[in-house]
């Protein structure tokens, strides 16, 4: 899987979908009925033991095995028709070992005792080959075995049990809403993931987990044929660690956006039809919106936008593998090195409190145990603007003199090796009562931004540029019409130090990244970022309009 | 069983089709076997091996289609797989964009797409190559992070209309980033091949190490418009978005006709036949070309033939789905899997020599679309950015963020160098005037 294949996926509004398989996941299509057949944990335990015993016999000092059925179903539609329904299943096992102080990994789709033993032996062979050129021995933080335990995403309605027709009807109804409200084109999609994964290790853990995720999304395009201009507006849903209940709108989950925008924020349920209708109107409005005058503005950032900025400038920057140089060849390193942290310089203003949380209900990153058998929890990353901790796996903890992992190990499938991935990283809401309208009323010259747009950040997480889905001018405390061609360029530390106000808990929502890419070969993971609407003062805004031909 | 021979694969596919009761049936086998090694801090961090074969069955009743898969190959499993595809097809909505399956096709041969040397790679070979690379960095007191990935695979297709296809393919990819211990210098090199016998990790490591050493203590230049020399790895990335891939990814006929592409014309229609780039810009695809040999058929069974996409700056062809080709009455061309940009004979060194003032860019990073209307992209320079004065590299410069469109870039062309392979494409280094850098980055 190449990173570029899934990068394009989120750009639904471009219409550039290359089907039929779901890029980013090692899978092939399968029919829906098959997805409901679970594999008996007793069988998985026997298979896992075959791998663990074979690894030990071949000379491994440690081994873990992940037997996984990774299920996905994706439905793609455009306008009045279904483009593709892809139901995928990928079943197999990955065995990871330490032999002669070095990691080795092998995966197989021959999930029999003989197949598992063979994969384990190959993993040991690879570890021993690599050990010949290795200097540092792998050191794992101690981890007690949990015995036979299990964990499930607390869903109300398994989306794989919902008839495909019901899901198709929902997407086509959303498309119809967009078309009725003036869209030239509309693409919509529903992504559903179910990871049925079984982990066992020589520490004595046998962990059976059933993880669910869902993402309904769409892109509306409005075209002015006479001028040749086109504009898009993406849906404002969030991918969630929820079941199909996310698609049954509940009044309590609706949060009104600023007066003058018509925007609605969604918490734990999403009204796709309502958003599609608004999207079409806003896409049309964007065709004639004023082009932004570049300069310094106070930014008021909606949680569905700010989540991506948190993801890029704090989430990735505080991953310990990046800090230490393990991702130097691809995703990059981090400015927030151990030496930088030791200086105790402010990462952000005193209002900025960032927590890592692998347990938050409804979040994409919530699991009971990570992919190396560590029970999950929550911990502080930034406290009152100061960096206090990183995100770690078992083999990294000793480097920062810790005796435990944070439970940040993840693999996208049975056939990829697990490594350190981002936990849910969220900005705590403000402690004082503050609504979005109250926040905007105090801004003299600003821009309100909702939704994700273009995003780019350097390999050490200093310089970033972010666009958005919709932009509104704020003049003298009021929303003053739509803007276009907006992007802001910032330096991470300057940006977070310009954080001037955060709305209270009542505005708090999760943003999600469903296809976050990292590693070589590149793997995707899904992670959420919670926040309330937040104000940043004096941010540099550029105008992105260009003329061609 | 990852790499099946043509006879073995077609025997399975024939049997599967014999189980079909649908109006139409198409079956595909995909297999791959391979391995990888990652290193960081001059030490191996992760490594792995993968071995998998899967079968995809598509069954059709009229305009209804269903798909199922399996990765076990006994008769009972194969029959069940066909039955499931047929059950889904009966329940599926009719597709208004239905196209009948293709009949027999003629495919070109691309013998260089598969190399026995690559298919035979062992864990010891990978460890030796990466070990040699780490040793160089140890000796130079530099820190490296590298990735070596190799795979051998095959695709076999067959359908009830008589289409039959089979091809084997191999690939090896290596990339390395070398950093100085004080964190002020970083250099990069990458290469990919069908045939691993051409691969030399040590040579690539030396290139990256030299760049790392040369890029220490970079000076800041004001952002603005600069003449740049973009190395091939700055134009196309092995595993990320890139400026030239962005352009090639936007040559879709339907998006252009629908009015949502830089190729859409005011008032309707598309810009095929118009000169949109400098006349030295010619880009074509040819899956049989030995240097970049690849699959000679597309996922839906259409032949991948030599096709010119841009000729002397003029857009000559757009790719399309079979449905849109028929509806719009245009040539039925699948999206290419790799391509070639014609170049000149100048080496990178020659291009530097011929530059009075400019910036040499090793690599561009985190490239993302800003405006699809103008194909404007943003991203940053990385791992070796140097100021050129009077034909010589003068000093390293701090990294920049750019906001630029490949359309504007290919109109501001000053010189084209000799193409090299990157990510399965042939790409020349390009010298571009007025490349737009919009801010500085502290990243090294």
UniProtKB/TrEMBL annotation, chain A:
Pfam families: PmbA_TldD_1st (PF01523), PmbA_TldD_2nd (PF19290), PmbA_TldD_3rd (PF19289). Residues 63-127 form the Metalloprotease TldD/E N-terminal domain. Residues 159-242 form the Metalloprotease TldD/E central domain. InterPro entries: Metalloprtase-TldD/E_C (IPR045569), Metalloprtase-TldD/E_cen_dom (IPR045570), Metalloprtase-TldD/E_N (IPR002510), Peptidase_U62_metallo (IPR051463), TldD/PmbA_N (IPR035068), TldD/PmbA_sf (IPR036059). It comes from the Bacteria. The keyword Transmembrane does not apply. Belongs to the peptidase U62 family. This is TldD/PmbA family protein.
TrEMBL record, chain B:
Residues 25-89 form the Metalloprotease TldD/E N-terminal domain. It comes from the Bacteria. InterPro entries: Metalloprtase-TldD/E_C (IPR045569), Metalloprtase-TldD/E_cen_dom (IPR045570), Metalloprtase-TldD/E_N (IPR002510), TldD/PmbA_N (IPR035068), TldD/PmbA_sf (IPR036059). Signal peptide: none annotated. Residues 141-215 form the Metalloprotease TldD/E central domain. Residues 223-438 form the Metalloprotease TldD/E C-terminal domain. Belongs to the peptidase U62 family. This is TldD/PmbA family protein.
